[in-house]
Write a structure and sequence with these properties.
180 residues; 60s Ribosomal Protein L30, Chain: A; alpha+beta
């Protein structure tokens, strides 16, 4: 059973956004009158953020406190992952499952988490205290996009129930040293 299916089987609320995941990258500044205006350089960010906002608002979810987020970005496979045998297209055995090239996963998170904030599902992306993120290629027939699971971890009993450990709940041998 895949990790995502296993996570989904625990009945966590899910958001599925469809579209091409786009990284939130650099901004370009223009001066208009006496004001500086920042504009996103990538033209793909706006449609992606709109897709995430729409999917998030349809979910009806809303979190005011700290949250754990699990995101799987689904990226369209390049044609080079496929071969032809007897006129039939097939996925090559050497085709990877995970995307190990651009776009950068942190920039994909930036655009997606900002969209979750814009949608009102989370108060601010600073409230994300735990995250698990992966980039995978789409399965056959699966559209590109993202699958997003969000869990409230404001209540310490919820954090323990979801196997998210606080420092004090771990045995002393597993604790990371405190910052000084």
């Amino acid at each position: 059973m895949s990790a995502e299916r296993e996570y989904r089987s625990n009945a966590k609320p899910m958001i599925r956004a469809y579209g091409t995941p786009a990284p939130q990258g650099s901004k370009q500044a223009y001066v208009r009158g006496k004001r500086a205006v920042l504009v996103e350089v990538s033209k793909r960010v706006k449609p992606w953020r709109e897709a995430v906002v729409e999917a998030a608002q349809k979910s009806g979810l809303s979190y005011g406190g700290s949250v754990s987020v699990r995101v799987t970005f689904h990226v369209k496979r390049p044609q080079s992952h496929y071969g032809r045998r007897k006129g039939q297209q097939y996925l090559k055995d050497t085709a990877p499952h995970y995307v190990s090239n651009k776009p950068d996963i942190d920039k994909l998170c930036r655009s997606t988490f900002d969209a979750l904030t814009d949608s009102g599902v989370i108060v601010d992306d600073s409230k994300i205290v735990v995250m698990h993120v992966q980039k995978t290629y789409c399965d056959d027939g699966e559209p590109p996009g993202a699958t997003i699971f969000i869990e409230d971890v404001t209540d310490p009993t919820l954090a323990r129930a979801s196997s998210i450990h606080t420092r004090s709940s771990l045995p002393s041998s597993e604790r990371e040293p405190r910052c000084s």
